[in-house]
Amino acid sequence: MKRIFHFAVAGILAASITACGARSGEPATTDPTATAASTNAAGQSAVQDDESAKDVVKVAASNKDFTTLVAAVKQAGLVDALSNAGPFTVFAPTNAAFDKVPKETLEALMQADKKADLQNILQYHVYVGMLSESLLQDGQTFNQVNGGNITISKKDGKTIINGTATIVATVKASNGIIHVIDGVLLPK
Protein backbone atom coordinates (compact mmCIF):
# COMPACT_ATOMS: atom_id res chain seq x y z
CA MET A 1 0.00 0.00 0.00
CA LYS A 2 2.82 2.39 0.86
CA ARG A 3 4.38 1.64 -2.51
CA ILE A 4 1.21 2.62 -4.39
CA PHE A 5 0.97 5.79 -2.30
CA HIS A 6 4.58 6.78 -3.23
CA PHE A 7 3.92 6.16 -6.93
CA ALA A 8 0.73 8.23 -6.75
CA VAL A 9 2.51 11.14 -5.02
CA ALA A 10 5.39 10.98 -7.53
CA GLY A 11 2.90 11.01 -10.41
CA ILE A 12 0.99 13.99 -9.01
CA LEU A 13 4.25 15.86 -8.37
CA ALA A 14 5.49 15.20 -11.92
CA ALA A 15 2.15 16.31 -13.38
CA SER A 16 2.21 19.49 -11.26
CA ILE A 17 5.73 20.40 -12.34
CA THR A 18 4.91 19.80 -15.99
CA ALA A 19 1.70 21.82 -15.75
CA CYS A 20 3.53 24.72 -14.11
CA GLY A 21 6.04 24.78 -16.97
CA ALA A 22 3.34 24.91 -19.65
CA ARG A 23 2.20 28.26 -20.99
CA SER A 24 -1.35 29.33 -20.48
CA GLY A 25 -3.59 27.69 -23.04
CA GLU A 26 -1.02 25.04 -24.01
CA PRO A 27 -1.39 21.42 -22.98
CA ALA A 28 1.19 20.14 -20.52
CA THR A 29 3.57 17.53 -21.87
CA THR A 30 5.84 15.08 -20.14
CA ASP A 31 7.61 14.10 -23.38
CA PRO A 32 11.03 15.81 -23.37
CA THR A 33 11.51 15.08 -27.08
CA ALA A 34 8.39 17.03 -28.01
CA THR A 35 10.08 20.34 -27.20
CA ALA A 36 13.32 19.38 -28.92
CA ALA A 37 11.49 18.25 -32.05
CA SER A 38 9.56 21.49 -32.28
CA THR A 39 12.59 23.76 -32.06
CA ASN A 40 14.30 24.98 -35.18
CA ALA A 41 17.02 22.57 -36.28
CA ALA A 42 19.13 25.36 -37.83
CA GLY A 43 22.69 25.89 -36.69
CA GLN A 44 24.57 28.80 -35.16
CA SER A 45 23.74 31.10 -38.06
CA ALA A 46 20.06 31.01 -37.06
CA VAL A 47 20.68 32.51 -33.63
CA GLN A 48 19.02 35.92 -33.49
CA ASP A 49 21.39 38.44 -31.93
CA ASP A 50 21.03 42.10 -32.80
CA GLU A 51 23.29 43.39 -30.03
CA SER A 52 26.61 41.56 -30.30
CA ALA A 53 29.29 42.33 -32.86
CA LYS A 54 28.80 40.57 -36.19
CA ASP A 55 30.59 37.30 -36.96
CA VAL A 56 32.61 36.85 -40.16
CA VAL A 57 29.60 35.67 -42.15
CA LYS A 58 27.39 38.57 -41.05
CA VAL A 59 30.17 41.08 -41.75
CA ALA A 60 30.58 39.70 -45.26
CA ALA A 61 26.82 39.50 -45.83
CA SER A 62 26.41 43.15 -44.86
CA ASN A 63 28.93 44.31 -47.48
CA LYS A 64 27.92 44.54 -51.16
CA ASP A 65 31.51 43.74 -52.23
CA PHE A 66 31.16 40.15 -50.97
CA THR A 67 27.90 38.99 -52.60
CA THR A 68 29.66 36.31 -54.67
CA LEU A 69 31.59 35.03 -51.65
CA VAL A 70 28.46 34.93 -49.49
CA ALA A 71 26.53 33.07 -52.21
CA ALA A 72 29.37 30.55 -52.48
CA VAL A 73 29.55 30.07 -48.69
CA LYS A 74 25.79 29.42 -48.64
CA GLN A 75 25.97 27.02 -51.60
CA ALA A 76 28.84 25.12 -49.93
CA GLY A 77 26.87 24.80 -46.68
CA LEU A 78 29.56 26.58 -44.63
CA VAL A 79 27.47 29.37 -43.06
CA ASP A 80 27.00 27.60 -39.72
CA ALA A 81 30.64 26.54 -39.49
CA LEU A 82 31.85 30.11 -40.04
CA SER A 83 29.24 31.50 -37.63
CA ASN A 84 30.68 29.50 -34.72
CA ALA A 85 32.98 30.92 -32.06
CA GLY A 86 36.20 30.55 -34.02
CA PRO A 87 38.49 32.38 -34.02
CA PHE A 88 38.86 32.37 -37.79
CA THR A 89 41.05 34.27 -40.19
CA VAL A 90 39.21 34.53 -43.48
CA PHE A 91 40.99 35.63 -46.63
CA ALA A 92 37.91 37.02 -48.37
CA PRO A 93 37.95 37.63 -52.13
CA THR A 94 35.87 40.56 -53.30
CA ASN A 95 33.37 40.37 -56.15
CA ALA A 96 36.08 41.91 -58.37
CA ALA A 97 38.42 39.06 -57.40
CA PHE A 98 35.78 36.51 -58.38
CA ASP A 99 35.31 38.37 -61.68
CA LYS A 100 38.87 37.27 -62.58
CA VAL A 101 37.73 33.62 -62.45
CA PRO A 102 36.22 32.43 -65.75
CA LYS A 103 32.44 32.73 -65.53
CA GLU A 104 31.93 29.11 -66.66
CA THR A 105 34.22 27.84 -63.90
CA LEU A 106 32.41 29.84 -61.24
CA GLU A 107 28.99 28.73 -62.48
CA ALA A 108 30.12 25.08 -62.54
CA LEU A 109 31.40 25.33 -58.94
CA MET A 110 28.01 26.64 -57.82
CA GLN A 111 26.26 23.44 -59.00
CA ALA A 112 25.11 20.92 -56.38
CA ASP A 113 27.34 18.15 -57.79
CA LYS A 114 30.43 20.36 -57.28
CA LYS A 115 29.73 21.14 -53.61
CA ALA A 116 32.84 19.27 -52.39
CA ASP A 117 35.07 21.20 -54.81
CA LEU A 118 33.52 24.50 -53.75
CA GLN A 119 33.98 23.62 -50.07
CA ASN A 120 37.63 22.75 -50.71
CA ILE A 121 38.29 26.12 -52.37
CA LEU A 122 36.45 28.12 -49.71
CA GLN A 123 38.10 26.23 -46.85
CA TYR A 124 41.45 27.08 -48.44
CA HIS A 125 40.58 30.72 -47.63
CA VAL A 126 40.13 30.01 -43.88
CA TYR A 127 42.68 29.60 -41.10
CA VAL A 128 41.60 28.51 -37.62
CA GLY A 129 43.10 31.14 -35.35
CA MET A 130 43.51 34.90 -35.36
CA LEU A 131 46.15 36.23 -37.75
CA SER A 132 46.32 39.99 -37.68
CA GLU A 133 48.20 41.49 -40.61
CA SER A 134 51.07 42.44 -38.30
CA LEU A 135 51.57 38.73 -37.51
CA LEU A 136 51.87 37.83 -41.19
CA GLN A 137 55.57 37.83 -42.04
CA ASP A 138 57.48 37.19 -45.24
CA GLY A 139 58.04 33.50 -45.89
CA GLN A 140 55.51 32.17 -43.39
CA THR A 141 53.33 29.22 -44.28
CA PHE A 142 49.93 28.59 -42.73
CA ASN A 143 47.84 25.42 -42.82
CA GLN A 144 44.30 26.17 -43.95
CA VAL A 145 41.06 24.41 -43.00
CA ASN A 146 41.13 22.24 -46.15
CA GLY A 147 44.61 20.94 -45.24
CA GLY A 148 46.45 22.98 -47.87
CA ASN A 149 49.07 25.61 -47.11
CA ILE A 150 49.27 29.26 -48.03
CA THR A 151 52.50 31.24 -48.16
CA ILE A 152 52.89 34.85 -47.10
CA SER A 153 55.19 37.31 -48.81
CA LYS A 154 55.80 41.00 -48.25
CA LYS A 155 56.62 43.42 -51.02
CA ASP A 156 56.61 47.21 -50.97
CA GLY A 157 54.72 47.19 -47.67
CA LYS A 158 51.98 44.93 -49.03
CA THR A 159 51.04 41.48 -47.77
CA ILE A 160 50.62 38.95 -50.56
CA ILE A 161 49.13 35.46 -50.32
CA ASN A 162 50.61 32.74 -52.58
CA GLY A 163 52.13 35.44 -54.77
CA THR A 164 48.73 36.14 -56.34
CA ALA A 165 46.36 37.88 -53.91
CA THR A 166 47.08 41.07 -52.00
CA ILE A 167 45.43 42.04 -48.73
CA VAL A 168 43.67 45.33 -49.48
CA ALA A 169 41.80 45.80 -46.19
CA THR A 170 41.22 44.13 -42.83
CA VAL A 171 37.95 43.96 -40.90
CA LYS A 172 37.51 42.60 -37.39
CA ALA A 173 34.55 40.40 -36.54
CA SER A 174 33.27 38.89 -33.30
CA ASN A 175 34.71 35.47 -34.15
CA GLY A 176 37.82 36.43 -36.04
CA ILE A 177 39.26 38.66 -38.68
CA ILE A 178 38.64 39.15 -42.39
CA HIS A 179 41.50 40.02 -44.70
CA VAL A 180 39.95 41.38 -47.88
CA ILE A 181 41.95 40.09 -50.86
CA ASP A 182 41.99 40.98 -54.55
CA GLY A 183 42.30 37.42 -55.85
CA VAL A 184 40.78 33.99 -55.37
CA LEU A 185 43.14 31.45 -53.77
CA LEU A 186 43.18 28.07 -55.48
CA PRO A 187 44.46 24.99 -53.65
CA LYS A 188 47.09 22.89 -55.39
TrEMBL record:
PROSITE patterns: FAS1, PROKAR_LIPOPROTEIN. GO terms for cellular component: extracellular space. Residues 28-42 have a biased composition (Low complexity). Keywords: Signal. This is Uncaracterized surface protein containing fasciclin (FAS1) repeats. Residues 1-21 form the signal peptide. PANTHER family: FI19380P1 (PTHR10900:SF77), PERIOSTIN-RELATED (PTHR10900).
